């Protein structure tokens, strides 16, 4: 997001904990060159307040989160304090910063109460979430709605939330996520261990929701911004709802060189929602947003990036080229 915003000419301040993995995308692409980077914790209200007061942002794009379902089972309190109270802290700071005109809070498709239904979820469906991560994102949605109704609407600040599906792409090294786990295994020339190969997820390349967030952010800063406040789904196309087994087959085929996977453990050990599709009609009609990549292209772009990492390529250039190719393919942002 920082590289893309920089390419569009934005002045960016970032506020985050130190990069949580080694290696990490932030360092590998030299994002510090584009961002006034503040290392801090969104649970630390004075530090957050000082950073926002210094940056005086026109728009805040809130992505900081404890973002992993499995980690949320191990440490629910960190998940809730970060995802719920961290969001409340940011909104409270933002309402005291007169420069803020718009706020976009990134939650998740998992914010919805999962009724394991065959129909896709729409923005007005009930919030819920079975596991602590999903539930914390449903809670964050409710916190945003309360701040919008209590403060921001009256102040003329447009506040939206964005719900995307399972995001994949180059440079993600997060533990206990399918694609990073696959890339680590293939780089180390060992088979990938899979817990639940039949689970169906909505896979999408990271540039797809980012494009949606940029289109939405522009509207939140434009005329009639209030019409764009509220929840927005940015889900992948229907061909992207694929079982884990198909995605790892595609990853292994793209990687080549005998890359393979095997099923381990009892998939019934942990509850993870089995089916959840997003209906993105609203983003399509009102923002002109539509996903452009099939899941196979998303997989290929991701493998290309990790192959470039293995080859010691200039990853800033590789990432910028992927962003530029996306912008040329789908030029509405520029
Ligand atoms: N990756 C996905 O598939 C996916 C899908 C839907 C929604 N999301 C949401 O999108 C957002 C970005 O996801 P991601 O995959 O880039 O996550 P990520 O885990 O890679 O990045 C999260 C960032 O938040 C920062 N962070 C965590 N706790 C913090 C704290 N207490 N204070 C300050 N910074 C903190 C981390 O340092 C990291 O930079 C998250 O809100 C996530 O829940 C992700």
Concise account of the structure shown:
With 334 residues, the protein is of the alpha/beta class. The protein is 43% helix and 15% strand.
SSE layout and pairing:
Elements: H1 2-7, E1 12-16, H2 25-28, E2 35-39, H3 45-55, E3 59-62, H4 69-74, H5 76-95, E4 102-106, H6 132-155, E5 158-164, E6 166-168, H7 178-187, E7 192-194, E8 200-205, H8 207-220, E9 230-234, E10 241-243, H9 244-255, E11 261-263, H10 281-287, H11 295-310, H12 315-329
Parallel strand pairs: 1-2, 3-4, 4-5, 5-9, 6-8, 7-11
Antiparallel strand pairs: 8-10
Bound molecules: nicotinamide-adenine-dinucleotide.
Could you report the average pLDDT, rounded to the nearest whole number? Answer: 94
Look at the structure and give the CATH class.
Alpha Beta
CATH superfamily: NAD(P)-binding Rossmann-like Domain
CATH third-level topology? Rossmann fold
Low-confidence stretches: none
How many independent structural domains? 1
What is the H/E order?
A: HEHEHEHHEHEEHEEHEEHEHHH
Main β-sheet description: 4 strands, parallel
Structural class: alpha/beta
Termini, distance in Å?
A: 15 Å
Task: Name the beta content range.
Answer: 5-15%
Radius of gyration: 19 Å
Helical content stands at 40-55%
- The CATH architecture can be given as 3-Layer(aba) Sandwich
**What sort of overall outline do the alpha carbons produce when their principal axes are compared?**
globular
Q: Please give the number of β-strands.
A: 11
Q: Given the structure, what is the number of helices? A: 12
Structure ligands:
nicotinamide-adenine-dinucleotide
InterPro entries: CDP_4_6_deHydtase (IPR013445), NAD(P)-bd_dom (IPR016040), NAD(P)-bd_dom_sf (IPR036291)
Protein name: CDP-glucose 4,6-dehydratase
Pfam family, one: GDP_Man_Dehyd
């Amino acid at each position: 997001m920082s590289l893309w915003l920089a390419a569009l000419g934005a002045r960016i301040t970032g506020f985050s904990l130190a990069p949580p993995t080694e290696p990490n995308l932030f360092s590998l692409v030299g994002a510090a060159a584009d961002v006034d980077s503040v290392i801090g914790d969104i649970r630390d209200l004075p530090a957050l307040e000082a950073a926002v007061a210094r940056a005086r942002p026109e728009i805040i794009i809130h992505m900081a989160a404890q973002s992993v379902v499995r980690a949320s089972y191990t440490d629910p309190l960190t998940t809730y304090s970060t995802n719920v109270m961290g969001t409340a802290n940011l909104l409270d700071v933002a309402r005291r910063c007169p420069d803020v005109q718009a706020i976009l809070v990134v939650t998740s498709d998992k914010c919805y109460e999962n009724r394991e239904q065959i129909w896709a979820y729409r923005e007005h469906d009930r919030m819920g979430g079975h596991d602590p991560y999903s539930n914390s994102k449903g809670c964050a949605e409710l916190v945003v709605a309360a701040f919008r109704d209590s403060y921001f609407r009256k102040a003329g600040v447009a506040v939206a939330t964005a719900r995307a599906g399972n995001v994949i792409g180059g440079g993600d090294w997060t533990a206990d996520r399918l694609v990073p786990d696959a890339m680590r295994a293939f780089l180390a020339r060992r088979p990938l261990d899979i817990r639940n190969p039949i689970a169906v997820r909505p896979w999408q390349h990271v540039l797809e929701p980012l494009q949606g967030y940029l289109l939405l952010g522009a509207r939140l800063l434009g005329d009639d911004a209030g019409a764009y406040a509220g929840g927005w789904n940015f889900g992948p196309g229907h061909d992207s709802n694929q079982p884990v087994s198909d995605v790892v087959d595609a990853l292994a085929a793209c990687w080549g060189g005998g890359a393979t996977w095997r099923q381990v453990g009892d998939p019934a050990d942990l509850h993870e929602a089995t089916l959840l599709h997003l209906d993105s009609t609203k983003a399509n009609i009102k923002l002109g947003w539509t996903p452009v990549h099939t899941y196979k292209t998303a997989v290929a772009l991701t493998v290309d990036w990790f192959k470039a990492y293995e080859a010691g390529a200039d990853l800033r250039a590789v990432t910028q080229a992927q962003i530029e190719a996306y912008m040329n393919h789908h030029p509405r942002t520029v």
